[in-house]
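Lab notebook page, bench 4
Experiment: in silico fold of construct C2
Operator: M.H.
Input chain length: 141 residues
Purpose: comparison with the prior construct
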Amino acid sequence: VLPLEAVSRGSQAAIILEFMHKAVNIIVDNLEELGLKDRIRVQNVDTLRWLKNFSATDLARSLPDCDWSKPWIVFVCPPYRLWTAECEKLTNGLSLLMEGCPAGSQIVCETDNSFDVTQALPDWEWDARFYDPATIAITRT
């Protein structure tokens, strides 16, 4: 999981959103074993619902010892089918998230090659890279 890598390499903290309860348990077990539980929060939530209700203030409350004014790196990798099945909800949520991120933050989206996030969110400047069958698209606030 990329947030574990980020924290192990110097990021202050991370929050992982995961819908599948079994996956949450595995992630929490790994955090305990790696000694990262105090720096990474795992929320068993529907990410689309979480994005709809996103608040930077609520986010800061989940890890109060972090400096949330520093730039964030947000990894967005839902099941590929959600990019098309829930495109409007996902892109609206990403827009809210982008508005709440500090200046200099990055949003990294992984999609399959059939979905073009640069067209879904055309007002953002994207650096898109293609790694068949996936596309990685990065933008900054």
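Observations: The beta strands are 14-18, 40-44, 73-76, 106-112, 127-131, 134-140. The mean pLDDT is 89.
Next step: discuss at group meeting.
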